Amino acid sequence: MIITPHLLVGAAIGSKIHNWWAVAILSFASHYILDAIPHPAYQLNFLKTKTFGKGTVADILKLGADFCLGFLFIFLVAEKTASFPYMALGMFMAILPDFLQVFYRFYKNRFLEPFQIVHDYFHFDKTKNFAWQSSVTIFTIFITITSIIAILIK
Ligand SMILES: [Zn+2]
Questions:
Q1: For 39-55, b where at least 16 C-beta lie within 10 A, e where not — what string?
Q2: 3-class DSSP state for residue 39?
Q3: How far, in Å, is the centroid of ligand 1 from the Cα of 92?
Q4: CA of 62 to the centre of ligand 1 (A)
Q5: Tell me, what's the pLDDT at 46?
């Protein structure tokens, strides 16, 4: 899944819950729940080739634009609120599983393997029916909009 929905859900959790541990755990878990929902995703060349070369700049631009879109939106609407530190933690924890996945793919570290197994277990099956996936994608958009509303409502 692209980064922005994960950031929004993590920020929504942090906007409503002001307990560091609860925000960290719930935001981390939210990543797997969102990944379980069928969704379109962009391909990253460096994950396929496991090298930084041709296509890496395009990868960085895609990831950077995606991250900036979500982060800037949240920063602009909530930066001055008392919830922002919790929202920042929520955002970090909500995208952490994807960073762990990237490190695992490059380094095959055995401490990261359990996270990869959990990630693979929850991530939706790309071989399933596309029509069904498209209808569930609407649900993903619903979750994203709901998260935005939750962030905006004090
Ligand atoms: Zn993921």
A1: beeeebbbeeeeeeeee
A2: coil
A3: 13
A4: 16
A5: 76
Instruction: Give the residue carrying structure tokens 């970090």.
Output: 92
pTM: predicted TM-score of the whole model, two decimal places:
0.81
Q: How far is the CA of 119 from the centre of ligand 1 (A)?
A: 6
| Amino acid at residue number 32 | Y
Separation of CA 102 and ligand 1 centre (Å): 10
| pLDDT value of residue 72 | 94
Rounded distance from Cα 141 to ligand 1 centre (Å) = 16
Tokens of residue 22, six digits: 């609860």
CB 3 within 8 A of CB 74: no
Distance 97 CA to ligand 1 centre (A): 6
Q: How far apart are CA 123 and CA 67, in angstroms?
A: 20
Stretches in the chain below the pLDDT threshold 70? 1, 40, 126-136, 154
What is the three-class DSSP state of 83? coil
- What confidence tens digit (pLDDT) does each residue in 45-66 have? 777 777 777 778 888 888 899 8
Distance CA 50, CA 149 (A): 38
Q: Output the pLDDT for position 106.
A: 84
